[in-house]
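Progress narrative, work stream C.
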Amino acid sequence: MAFGKKMSLSRVENPCFLLFLIIFQAIFILILYRGSNSTVYRTSFPLPRPLDYSKTEDVYTNLSLFTPAPDKANMRYCTESPILVGPLAVTFDTLPSEEMIISKNPYVQSGGHYSPPHCVARYKTAVIVPHKNHEKHLQHFLYYLHPFLQRQQINYCIYLIHQAGSGPFNRAKLLNVGVREAMKDDDWDCLLLHDVDLIPENDYNVYVCDDYFPKQLSTAIDKLYYSFPYWSFFGGVIALTPEHYMKINGFPNTFWDKDGEDDDIAERIAIAGMGIDRVPLYVGHYKMIDYGQAAERVQNLKRPAELNTKKTWRDDGMNSLEYKLLGKKKYRLYVNITVDIGAAPVLPPEGKNKGNKA
């Protein structure tokens, strides 16, 4: 009879099965919080789901409620923003003027710097935007991003990194320059690396860094039908702490007029033993500004590049960054940093379009 009872033990009562469950759960938790390219998103407030993007609010809605505190010396820390609405109306039908943007953002100070006038911000974010000959994009970007960040009660500054000369564009190197110059100005909590042609459509998509992992914010772009292009994608709008950025040695400096630097930095993150936090698709909505250049850009976003990051990342990045600072000037809506980043190397014809761009 005793033998029969042993044979009738359920799987749940079996010690080996219980041990298997414990090990499986431990591995799952380890992957979730420490694994490479994990998808985790943390906020300090519950997100409504689903979000109805057919019902949107103007990005300036209720922004006038943020007025200066009567006693600035005794201001309290900001709590959850009371004016977040979720989906925002974004359109590019009318090009806003600089005067209009300035008038609608009265608390933005010289250099595109803003600190909430009614409370003490809990986060300091440097928004770094590589730029070359995209003036129309920039006007739309500034019109939407300034009120977007103010809605979230963030202490922020917008840095425009302008590449001088007529040589091929090097977005990755400009981002490295932006990080170095921004960190000279303040001890920023978060480095928000932002393409100038992407506009956020949801103010629940908070522009602050995660303490543990680099974060992907632009997970659902309209030109990609609000879907994620491929599992290792880490571009468009991303957020890293200064510690994250230095741990991966920043971006590569050798990507001239080519795509693939986003895949390179994703590989660097994996090599450094970190994962990637990704904003849920229903929150990470962005619209891409299209002045006739979006089609080619979208095609490049659909496929990962072939790289040799493991061989190059230690020597190509922040530790090898060289540039000449031509000017650093504060305008009302942003800091303009103009740099000479040198000339692109001349490659032999057979090497120009290789997958390895490092």
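Work stream C, second folded protein:
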Amino acid sequence: EDVDVPSRRVLITGATGLLGRAVFKEFNENNWNTVGCGYRRAQPRFEHVNLLDSIAVHDIIHDFQPHVIVHCAAERRPDVVEGQPDAASQLNVAASANLAKEAAGVRAFLIYISTDYVFDGTSPPYKETDVPNPLNLYGKTKLEGEKAVLENNEDTAVLRIPVLYGEVERLEESAVTVMFDKVQFSNKSANMDHWQQRFPTNVKDVAAVCRQLAEKRMLDPSIKGTFHWSGNEQMTKYEMACAIADAFNLPSSHLRPITDSPVVGALRPKNAQLDCSKLEMLGIGQRTPFRAGIRESLWPFLVDKRWRQTVFH
């Protein structure tokens, strides 16, 4: 029997990660022929590809002939990048440059996922045309990655996004969800950063933006260059923690706001808010309200679920 295989093909790198899983699901559920690749956690669902192996990258791209590649794979933990600069540069810059070259070889549209950390956070909101000035090595490697992909493939979209959250496999997968235990265990006080202004963004929304961008691009080859997407609720980590507590009817009086700039770890920009009007004017975008998104993401990790069911049912 003839099986209707969608004619639009998309390849997703980093498909095992928090964002990659959401991007894979979004394309897959919207009639794209979707292949995801990963490294450590790839099998059995995704192709096992080491992005530092140029032959492996060449082979999967030439075998699959994707129309679109969404490059989600990166070392995205600023403190890890500071400690392992060479490895981070290999993945964030060298592998991205090679991927862009291979994408150009099959005329694939590449979406390179970048970060708000390319900006120093001193004069938000930032438009795509504003001059980057990263404060930490992570931001620097992602900015170098942007330049590398644009130099190697003119059919590239750079999509800068801020701190992400969503349906995590472990709480540590996101800088937002990792706070849940501190919120839940209210028997001891917890210090929370109340200095850095963040814009928590749901991975489902970023995934929808990637798909909309890809579909617009299939109709209009002028769709390329740099774009920004972000949630629009401004919150410090302290405010996110309070919102999480509120979403689950948990106490928040044990959470302590710390208003000094952090002294440990990689430098962070104070407020790297992204101006998203360029995508909005194209009719692209989706935003999940933070309380609804965080409730959906964290519900499986709620410690007293059983207790609640016996009390309320």
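The mean pLDDT is 93. No further action is required on this item.
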